[in-house]
Amino acid sequence: MPKVFSTARVVRGAQLKYWNDLHSGLLTPLEIKPFDRSTFEATSSFEQLGPLRLVRTRSAPAVVEHRARHVALTKERRFRILLPTHGRIRVQHVGREALLQEGDFVMLDDSAPYRIAFRERNQALCVAVSPTMLRTYLPTPANLCGLPMAAGNPMNGIVGAMLRGLWAQIERGLPAEQGATLAKTLLQSIAAAYAIEHSVEVERPVVTAARYAEIKNYIEMHLRSPDLGPTPIANALGLSRRYIRLLFAANDDSVTAYIRRRRLEECAFELSQPLWRGRSITATAADWGFRSMAHFARSFKNQYGTTPTAYRRARLRPART
User: Who's near 157: CB < 8 A, 6+ residues apart?
Assistant: First the structure.
């Protein structure tokens, strides 16, 4: 039977710290920021299925962040399959953004930052697997992270139904000796789903895929640095600027465009969130590596079609009743 943890067992005022410490210890270092601290409540259940760890979480609206500082504290890298079973969640990871409906799923990598946000009560299932185990079924899992897997596609639906069915059986009682066999079947199904929907990424040469993922992870870890660019990346990773340029060109992109786009996405997220309402736009831009406010404002308008001020105002305007 799964181990169950709940904020209901903790005195009011200490709940959020307890919840952050719990998940940072049992999953991976992260920070949970509820939209309403005064009413925040959540429950998590943990179970081991052979080499896999399964978690079901029920939570009030919140933003969950695994940032660069959390990545640096991560002791054991894990890939995670995240599937909402109630409510929608928005996931931002390695330059990709996905809005997951109930039954959809996405893969996350603890070696790179990610953000999970939900504005309604949420229930989700998560499977954690080691890189060594996952690569037995998917040679280049890092390149598949952040890609949404819609439940409407048949194989994806099978994965979702299998995961929900496994959890239901775990709650009823599952013999430990069956765990390894069931884990293998689940991973085979996940690999088949990615092979069907993202065959180009799955079949990409392993070395090329690994290098591309390594570069993107480095960018995500240093996105706040105003000095981030092709030369520092090449020097840090022992690669040539030309090689890096060719890798991004193969994906119809460039290093500088990718960095600028990712910085703007992070700024846009903060500008749209009530949690950051009291922070100045100048501070947000500077925090994400923009040295010039004029350059930031111009780039932001080019990407989003409006000024940062208008963007924030439109997204923080109270909804009409």
Answer: 103, 151
DSSP 263-307: HHHHHHHHHT-GGGTTS-HHHHHHHTT-S-HHHHHHHHHHHHSS-
> What are the distances in angstroms from CA 87 to CA 80, 281, 297, 308?
19, 30, 34, 29
Cα 177 to chain centroid distance, Å, stands at 32
- Beta-carbon neighbour count of residue 179 at 10 Å? 19
Q: Phi and psi dihedrals of 294, rounded to 5?
A: -65, -45
Q: Which residue has the higher pLDDT, 243 or 198?
A: 243
Instruction: Please state the length of the chain.
Output: 321
CA atoms of 102 and 109, how far apart (whole Å) = 21
Q: What is the pLDDT of residues 41-58, one digit of tens each?
A: 999 999 999 999 999 999
Place of tokens 């991976």: 28
pTM score above 0.85: yes
Tokens of 141: 């899992």
